[in-house]
Amino acid sequence: xxxxxxTRVVPARAGSTxxxxxxxxAEVTVSAGSNGKDEKAVASYWGVxxxxxxxxxxxxxxxxxxxxxxxxxxxxxxxxxxxHAPTTFLxxxxxxxxxxxxxxxxxxxxxxxxxxxxxxETVAAVPxxxxxxxxxxxxxxxxxxxxxxxxxxxxxxxxxxxxxMTFMEVxxxxxxxxxxxxxxxxxxxxxxxxxxLISPKLAHxxxxxxxxxxxxxxxxxxxxxxxxxxxxxxxxxxxxxYWRLPKGSTLRDVVMVxxxxxxxxxxxxxxxxxxxxxxxxxxxxxxxxxxx
Amino acid sequence: xxxxxxTRVVPARAGSTxxxxxxxxAEVTVSAGSNGKDEKAVASYWGVxxxxxxxxxxxxxxxxxxxxxxxxxxxxxxxxxxxHAPTTFLxxxxxxxxxxxxxxxxxxxxxxxxxxxxxxETVAAVPxxxxxxxxxxxxxxxxxxxxxxxxxxxxxxxxxxxxxMTFMEVxxxxxxxxxxxxxxxxxxxxxxxxxxLISPKLAHxxxxxxxxxxxxxxxxxxxxxxxxxxxxxxxxxxxxxYWRLPKGSTLRDVVMVxxxxxxxxxxxxxxxxxxxxxxxxxxxxxxxxxxx
Lengths: 292, 292
Ligand SMILES: [Fe+2]
Ligand SMILES: [Fe+2]
Ligand SMILES: [Fe+2]
Ligand SMILES: [Fe+2]
Description:
Oligomer: homodimer
Strand order of the largest sheet of chain A: 1-2
Bound molecules: fe (ii) ion
């Protein structure tokens, strides 16, 4: 299964962002179905052709969900052990909320770390989207800049979604797992939405602690890969391009870069919480952008 | 008033995305307040320094809300007259909903186009965010790619927010206008959210028609500038950088590029509606990215 992959790319509208060039409006956009089977044309007066992008080596860029300039090499040197010791009451609420959520998760997944990673990434991609959306609406309501935090949080959400897109290539969700994801998303989205409205300080701290747990889970995942309990299969193509991994990279390499991502999210969210703790608003401190 | 502008930039963490380089974690992040007055330090173990970016000419990049590679030259050659003739029942619902919303807007603003533009951009930035967020959650729930549509819609939302950030430099909202914006956002966000859940086909069509009206308003704005009823002040600094406008550009130039943006949004949303009309899902057709 290769989701989101199209076999044909429609011709690019040359110079679409250059003024003075008369745009050649395509009357019809032809696009192939997601699995190459249903090649039905989308006929539209509004046909807006996508860009044609090539990789460094001249071959066609085959992903529509991310572009070459969004890819990166993960910073594997990041400190994986950093921890925010909970001291205030709110910190303790955040810490024990996360610890309490971990118990049922451990029982449910046992040592199935591939499945666990895939399932948890569907949840991990929610906070960044909720936070980014709320800051976006706040920026509009208050006629004020965001200091780059909207983008930083949306980037985090997109990064987590890419983790999911990667893991679903190596683990297939069963029907009851899909049902569970739908339920959990419904509950978690609303809970986090409310939490962010009431106390962004608490919300970011909770995510900081969730990320600390994520780092731990991925370390366990690596152990299972190293002792042979989980097969170290080749890395999916999407991971090679997204993290600029060398050819021949394996699942182990993917888990390494994903774990580094989680450490970066931990930093950003604990930092965001700290800013709130110091009585400031996020927009007063420039957000870390492209911090992976 | 210069919102979201910092006078000092903390040192960048060199090579943060390069593996193998030992990251120098800053223990303390110092950042200036948004108006340079309250230079309070944010002390944080998690201090995540922002990147230091320079412009092409070597001077420091002063915006934290957008980066050089997100700027563009607007395609002024785009057809401003394109219109989707409503034929189906849903199209007519969309068309007359927008027409009905125009009447009170015209009465409220009369010929105050600067104020009108600023106020309407606070609403215009909502649909892209709601659509992007819903597609993001859907992608997570269904374990499937989005074909780039999440990003395309979020880019539209961000582009509209930049319109607001630009116009608020030339028009200051009064207290009752701020109150109105808060109320309108509360109603419109929820209405659009529900509409997108029930019928994305209708939702995108409504935005398509809203953009057609926006093009019309900006054309009226240009007329008022040309006949001297509105003063053609210099373009704000943020506009010069965002649209790569030459030095000495004026409000008229800004309205020209903003109107071109609206024409692009019109195309994208009518196109998205067409895709739904043909019984397909957005993800099956690659989204237009960087389509400005
Ligand atoms: Fe993740
Ligand atoms: Fe994470
Ligand atoms: Fe706009
Ligand atoms: Fe627009």
